[in-house]
């Protein structure tokens, strides 16, 4: 289960109202880029390796995957100028979370698609996401 809280305070170098971050710092981060762009994510307190997985929430199209190392601010740029969702998950967090990343990303994407032009959560809301693995 992921328990995510709005954490735009962990972002720098981004355009306000176009990038949104919910996180469980050190474990899981979900960024939503409304119209492409870039942002720097503060991972200075966490030296783990993190898996990055992109998905376009409106088309369901998967983008690039990558691995980054924490311990610093990491510049993140979307694959293009469309809307993108990014999951950033610590590789030390849990193998189960990594198995569920795909399912959870699709759940988040369909939620965003369904809510299109409405706020999903308030600024101070906590979101809990559960995903079951078929394994």
Distance between the termini: 16 Å
Strand content: 35-45%
The assigned structural class equals alpha+beta
Q: What is the count of DSSP helices, taking H or I runs of 4+ residues?
A: 1
The overall strand count is 10
- The count of domains is 1
**Helical percent range?**
10-25%
Q: Could you say what the CATH architecture is? A: Sandwich
The largest sheet has its strands arranged as: 7-6-9-4-3-1-10
The top-level CATH class is: Mainly Beta
User: How would a textbook summarize the main sheet?
Assistant: 7 strands, antiparallel
Stretches where pLDDT falls below 50 for ≥5 residues? 115-123, 130-135
Order of helices and strands: EEEEEEEEEHE
Descriptive notes:
By secondary structure, the chain is of the alpha+beta class. The chain has one domain: Sandwich (Immunoglobulin-like), CATH 2.60.40. The protein has 1 helix and 10 strands; from the N terminus they run βββββββββαβ. The protein has one helix at 95-115; strands at residues 2-6, 11-12, 19-24, 28-33, 38-42, 49-55, 62-69, 73-77, 84-90, 127-129. A 7-stranded antiparallel sheet has the order 7-6-9-4-3-1-10, with helices on one face. Strands 2-5-8 form a 3-stranded antiparallel sheet, with no helix packed on it. A hairpin with a 3-residue loop joins β3 (19-24) and β4. The protein is globular, with a radius of gyration of 14 Å.
């Amino acid at each position: 289960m992921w328990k995510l809280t709005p954490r735009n305070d962990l972002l720098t170098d981004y355009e306000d109202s176009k990038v949104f971050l919910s996180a469980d710092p050190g474990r899981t981060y979900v960024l939503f880029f409304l119209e492409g762009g870039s942002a720097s994510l503060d991972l200075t307190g966490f030296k783990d390796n993190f898996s990055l997985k992109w998905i376009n929430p409106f088309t369901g199209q998967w983008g690039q995957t990558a691995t980054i190392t924490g311990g610093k601010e990491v510049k993140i740029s979307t694959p293009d100028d469309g809307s993108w969702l990014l999951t950033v998950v610590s590789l030390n967090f849990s193998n189960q979370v990594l198995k569920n990343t795909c399912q959870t990303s699709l759940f988040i994407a369909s939620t965003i698609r369904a809510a299109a032009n409405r706020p999903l959560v308030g600024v101070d809301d906590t979101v809990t996401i559960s995903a079951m693995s078929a394994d």
